[in-house]
């Protein structure tokens, strides 16, 4: 496995110098953040990211994310222009040495939580999702106060209502069709440039606000991989996104998709799933701290020859650190070290 770490660019309080001091760190996971969704990234911006990363002694091989424009997900006529731009981005990133691109196909909302600073018993804070709170939000109500944290701030409230309404006339099958159309255009480009595309599961892995969500479970991941049956059409196995539903057997999926050579990127994090579908809380990476058996997941990857990128996903805020929720230095660094420890043990036991 190649250990990696997400970095939000020069504005990030966590510096490349911090990140390189984490033992075993291989790659930076980053993106060009100043270009609107759907447009082409400049070669200069890409080259600048590469230069900064390499000067810090790290590899520039993973992008998270090249976002997919809503018109592609909605299947609107403008999608062909956005898909052409997407292919151009893949080519430019490949020229700069990128090997893996993470993206998602969630309508409107990327990851959704109800609180970003929930205080855990040990005084650390973490991201949580309480279904009861989500149920109280109706994005289409005229008086609705759309304030769930983590949402794309680039939408005005009116725009948000409009785009949510557009999805209302769409079924899950329509979204599958639009995903297939996108993949059929993008995967051949990725294959010809040697880039692995890695879709991120929907987070959480169920429908919210009546919007279709399809990258949610084993059955749907099977279907996804068959849409374009090419190794460059792969997944980001996000343990927390899949694992927040007790119905998903993340250990089984890790082993199965690794054996198929279709996991290109892993987001490793633990969640505590609340009973009766009441939601989940993000926890420290250690298995004992949440519902997921992190050792079993890594063992399934290891046993099945996983050789891709892995990063500690969200961390708690600990030791007084402030900043971007889920993306502080300390707890993610602890997570990285935990992953290193498990992997070293697996390597040596199997030797
Ligand atoms: C949240 C992340 C997601 C992820 C995208 C991938 O912290 O896991 O925002 O980057 O869904 O496209
Ligand atoms: Mn993730």
TrEMBL record:
Single Gene Ontology MF annotation: mannonate dehydratase activity
Protein role: Catalyzes the dehydration of D-mannonate.
UniProt-listed InterPro entries: Man_deHydtase, Xyl_isomerase-like_sf
NCBIfam families (UniProt xref): PRK03906.1 (NF003027), uxuA (TIGR00695)
Keywords in alphabetical order: Iron, Lyase, Manganese
EC number(s) stated in the UniProt entry for this protein: 4.2.1.8
Entry-linked SUPFAM superfamilies: Xylose isomerase-like
Pfam family, one: UxuA
UniProt pathway: Carbohydrate metabolism; pentose and glucuronate interconversion
Lineage of the species this protein comes from: Bacteria, Bacillati, Bacillota, Clostridia, Lachnospirales
Cofactor annotation: Fe(2+); Mn(2+)
Family: Belongs to the mannonate dehydratase family.
Reaction(s) the record says it catalyses: D-mannonate = 2-dehydro-3-deoxy-D-gluconate + H2O
Gene name of the record: uxuA
Protein name: Mannonate dehydratase
């Amino acid at each position: 496995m190649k250990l990696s770490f997400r970095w939000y660019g020069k504005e990030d309080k966590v510096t490349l110098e911090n990140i390189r001091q984490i033992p075993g760190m291989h790659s930076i996971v980053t993106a060009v953040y100043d270009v609107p969704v759907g447009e082409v990234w400049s070669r200069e911006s890409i080259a600048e990211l590469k230069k900064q990363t390499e000067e810090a002694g790290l590899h520039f091989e993973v992008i998270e994310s090249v976002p997919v424009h809503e018109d592609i997900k909605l299947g609107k006529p403008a999608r062909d222009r956005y898909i052409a731009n997407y292919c151009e981005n893949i080519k430019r990133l490949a020229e700069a040495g990128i090997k893996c691109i993470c993206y998602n196909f969630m309508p409107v909302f990327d990851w959704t939580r109800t609180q970003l600073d929930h205080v855990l018993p040990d005084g650390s804070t973490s991201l949580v999702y309480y279904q009861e709170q989500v149920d109280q939000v109706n994005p289409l109500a005229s008086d609705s106060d759309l304030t769930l944290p983590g949402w794309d701030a680039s939408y005005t409230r009116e725009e948000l209502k409009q785009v949510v309404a557009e999805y209302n006339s769409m079924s899950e099958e329509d979204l599958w069709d639009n995903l297939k159309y996108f993949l059929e255009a993008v995967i051949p480009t990725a294959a010809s440039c040697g880039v692995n595309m890695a879709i991120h599961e929907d987070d959480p892995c169920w429908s919210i606000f009546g919007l279709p969500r399809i990258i949610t479970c084993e059955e749907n991941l099977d279907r996804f991989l068959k849409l374009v049956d090419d190794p460059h059409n792969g997944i980001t196995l996000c343990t927390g996104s899949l694992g927040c539903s007790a119905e998903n057997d993340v250990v089984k999926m890790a082993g199965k998709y690794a054996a198929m050579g279709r996991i290109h990127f892993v987001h490793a994090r633990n969640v505590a799933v609340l009973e009766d579908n009441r939601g989940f809380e993000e926890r420290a990476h250690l298995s004992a701290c949440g519902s997921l058996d992190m050792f079993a997941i890594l063992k399934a990857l290891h046993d099945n020859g996983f050789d891709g990128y892995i990063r500690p996903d969200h961390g708690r805020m600990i030791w007084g650190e402030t900043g971007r929720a889920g993306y502080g230095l300390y707890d993610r660094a602890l997570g990285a070290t935990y992953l290193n420890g498990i992997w070293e043990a697996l390597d040596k036991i199997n030797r």
